[in-house]
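User: Here's a structure from my thesis project, written as structure tokens. My advisor, Dr. K., wants to see whether a designed sequence matches the one we expressed. Can you design one independently, without my sequence as a hint?
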């Protein structure tokens, strides 16, 4: 859970100086992560600086500001990792070690900040030492890009591979992180949406990936049909495998196709429920969801990003306007919530909308 703490704020250019100085003065709250946003950096403090400490800080950092901010608490895994690296990294760099990473099957995917690049293999080895079930550590080597939503990775430690088997809510998913998008951070959403599907429903999963929504729905609701659509042929091959090994072949139907095209033909007006897990650009596919929903209405699970100063309310308004442009209407938002922080002042959100 986020924790509000006293903090100091400096520019990123002064970040190393600020961290080293606050660490030397024993002011840093090491249980909390560092917050970054744009050109600014926030460092959590365990207490207010004394007068002499304050004078020292302002001498070295004339532009420093003090205030409060919400910080993510470090997990036990992060604390163990810091302990393993304590005598191997300078104190200022130790504070920059990422406090969270994705675990997909037996693979860790971590985002290594630029100052830590020379130490990335050391960090990868430390992750394996503190997580005995991990066989491979990969570092993000670029942003998610392209229509297939994939990125490049650098191998840091362990077996040099990108394939694994991820287990979630009783399902197994064959995943290749280099070929198909998959996020373990949405596991709660996979379960939440699957639990809502009723007998007899037809679900259209527009950007299905390897199938974490579709397969779980097939497992949970034997009397529903799920059409799992993705444009990425590698993702669809993995999806087909996951449908088969989880024994939901008669309920989940993989389709390699463009979402917009197939909802104008084969899946037009077919869905009681539509899943839109494409947060970067889902807003551009609201027309596609409207085409898929049955003429008498249905539910759309929409995932998007909200960046300050925008809000969930503004996203709801924009979504409503786009639905209206497609001659449909948002009868109600049944659920609207931030589900995870993706960066300082940026969150991924979900809207459950009843469309008629």
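Assistant: Designed independently from the structure alone:
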């Amino acid at each position: 859970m986020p924790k509000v703490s006293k903090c100091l704020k400096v520019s990123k250019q002064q970040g190393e100086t600020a961290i080293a100085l606050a660490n030397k003065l024993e002011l840093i709250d090491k249980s909390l992560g560092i917050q970054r946003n744009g050109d600014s950096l926030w460092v959590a403090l365990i207490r207010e600086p004394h007068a002499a400490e304050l004078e020292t800080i302002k001498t070295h950092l004339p532009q420093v500001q003090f205030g409060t901010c919400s910080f993510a608490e470090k997990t036990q895994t992060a604390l163990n990792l810091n302990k393993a690296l304590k005598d191997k990294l300078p104190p200022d760099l130790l504070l920059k070690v990422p406090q969270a990473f994705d675990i997909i099957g037996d693979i860790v995917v971590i985002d290594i900040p630029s100052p830590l690049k020379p130490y990335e293999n050391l960090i990868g080895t430390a992750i394996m030492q503190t997580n005995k079930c991990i066989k491979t550590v990969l570092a993000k080597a670029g942003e998610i890009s392209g229509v297939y939503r994939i990125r490049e990775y650098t191998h840091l430690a362990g077996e040099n591979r990108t394939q694994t088997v991820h287990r979630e809510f009783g399902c197994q998913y064959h995943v290749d992180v280099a070929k198909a998008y998959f996020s373990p951070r949405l596991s709660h959403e996979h379960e939440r949406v699957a639990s809502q599907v009723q007998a007899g429903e037809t679900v259209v999963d527009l950007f299905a990936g390897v199938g974490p929504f579709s397969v779980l729905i097939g497992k949970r609701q034997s009397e529903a049909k799920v059409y799992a659509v993705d444009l990425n042929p590698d993702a669809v091959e993995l999806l087909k495998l996951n449908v088969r090994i989880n024994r939901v072949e008669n309920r989940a139907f993989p389709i390699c196709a463009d979402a917009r095209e197939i909802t104008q033909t084969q899946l037009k007006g077919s869905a009681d429920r539509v899943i839109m897990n494409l947060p970067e650009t889902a807003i551009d596919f609201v027309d596609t969801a409207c085409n898929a929903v049955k003429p008498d209405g249905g539910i759309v699970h929409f995932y998007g990003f909200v960046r300050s100063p925008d809000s969930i309310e503004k996203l709801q308004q924009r979504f409503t306007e786009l639905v209206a442009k497609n001659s449909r209407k948002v009868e109600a938002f049944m659920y609207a919530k931030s589900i995870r922080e993706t960066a300082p002042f940026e969150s991924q959100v979900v809207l459950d909308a009843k469309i008629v």
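When you compare it with your expressed construct, this may help: DSSP finds eleven helices and 17 strands in the chain.
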